[in-house]
Amino acid sequence: MAFLSIKNLTKKYDGNTVLDSISLDIEKGSFLSLLGPSGCGKTTTLRLLAGFEKCDGGIIEVNGNIINDIPVYSRNFGMVFQSYALFPHMTVEQNIAYGLEQRKMSKKDIKEEVAKAIEMVRLAGYEKRRPKQLSGGQQQRVALARALVIKPDLLLLDESLSALDKKLRVEMQVELRQIQKKIGITTIFVTHDQEEALTLSDRIAVMKAGKIIQIGTPEEIYETPKDTFVASFLGQANFFKGSIAEKQDNIYALRLKNDGVMRFVSEKNIQPGQLSAITVRPEKIEVSRQAKELSLKGTVLFVTYVGDTSIYRVDSMGQEVIVQRQNTGNAEKYDIGDEVYLSWEPENSLVLEWDGEE
Ligand SMILES: Nc1ncnc2c1ncn2[C@@H]1O[C@H](COP(=O)(O)OP(=O)(O)OP(=O)(O)O)[C@@H](O)[C@H]1O
Ligand SMILES: [Mg+2]
């Protein structure tokens, strides 16, 4: 049985449905990210889980027990908010001790537990400082220690790292994941940063407009996105959108919007007329000066050198196609204006659902 189970959770504000019957399970000790654009309902989901808001439908279960009516303080969940909201007049130590004092723990035990928490987030030596005397990353650690010190059954983190600069954020990601694994705490992490979700998570739930579109491991979500939204939200993707015009064995013809016809191989059984988006990641496309079977002819529009790779923008089939090539020593280079042919292994392209919209 899953540790936490959300079933058909629904939330409305002023008649607007903000969460539309979302369901998900999370195993004990695992790390799940909620990933999605601004306003899709991530914070709302956390607030419902924490008990700060009541839902308009659905249930939340912990170990098989419905907790919908259990008040915030009895749920034993730790939460770090989007703005981490430390108490400004209290020292690091006092901030971390707060939750334990609320629980009426003895002074001696509080001292011990706070010291352990400070050790864990590597803040020894900072005990007597106040939040404004700390850097963003240090404040972040205090917030994390404050949430962890109560030994919560579930840790809820809302965009906790997004206020930090890139380098510190990456360091904190590693640290957070190490702490999470060490103490084996079940964690739900909200982010709109795809890289962060890919790095940290056991599983990712991709949300859009109050719905969960897909749940899976980082690899599943990246390699087999369910639709064009998920594919473009996680990493870059090229889409060739159109309707299936004909099929011969496993070779299909796709009629694009501009009436161009593109032929591709798929082992899927796709019906003629079906609206589809042939999806290829930039790093899966090969470039050559020679035509191959089913390759796409194009012209290099722009080349960007990014150290380990080069990014080519190629005009092909009436659209811009992005190609990413490793800069290995013997990789052929192409210049603006060069005529090239693009191809990929059939298993490196996906035929995704396309709703006909841009
Ligand atoms: N208290 C509230 N009253 C009315 N509408 C609300 C309230 N809280 C959130 N909303 C609306 O619910 C929707 C989801 O908000 P939510 O804060 O969950 O988004 P989010 O995914 O966390 O976005 P962000 O990435 O910007 O933090 C938004 O359209 C928001 O305007
Ligand atoms: Mg939010």
TrEMBL record:
It holds the Pfam family ABC_tran. The complex is composed of two ATP-binding proteins (PotA), two transmembrane proteins (PotB and PotC) and a solute-binding protein (PotD). InterPro entries: AAA+_ATPase (IPR003593), ABC_SmlMolc_Importer (IPR050093), ABC_transporter-like_ATP-bd (IPR003439), ABC_transporter-like_CS (IPR017871), Mo/tungstate-bd_C_term_dom (IPR008995), NA-bd_OB-fold (IPR012340), P-loop_NTPase (IPR027417), PotA-like (IPR005893). The keyword DNA-binding does not apply. Part of the ABC transporter complex PotABCD involved in spermidine/putrescine import. Responsible for energy coupling to the transport system. The lineage of its organism: Bacteria, Bacillati, Bacillota, Clostridia, Lutisporales. Belongs to the ABC transporter superfamily. Spermidine/putrescine importer (TC 3.A.1.11.1) family. NCBIfam families: potA (TIGR01187). GO terms for molecular function: ATP binding. Keywords: ATP-binding, Cell membrane, Membrane, Nucleotide-binding, Translocase, Transport. Residues 4-234 form the ABC transporter domain. It catalyses: ATP + H2O + polyamine-[polyamine-binding protein]Side 1 = ADP + phosphate + polyamineSide 2 + [polyamine-binding protein]Side 1. Signal peptide: none annotated. The keyword RNA-binding does not apply. Its EC number is 7.6.2.11. The gene is potA. Transmembrane segments: none annotated. This is Spermidine/putrescine import ATP-binding protein PotA.
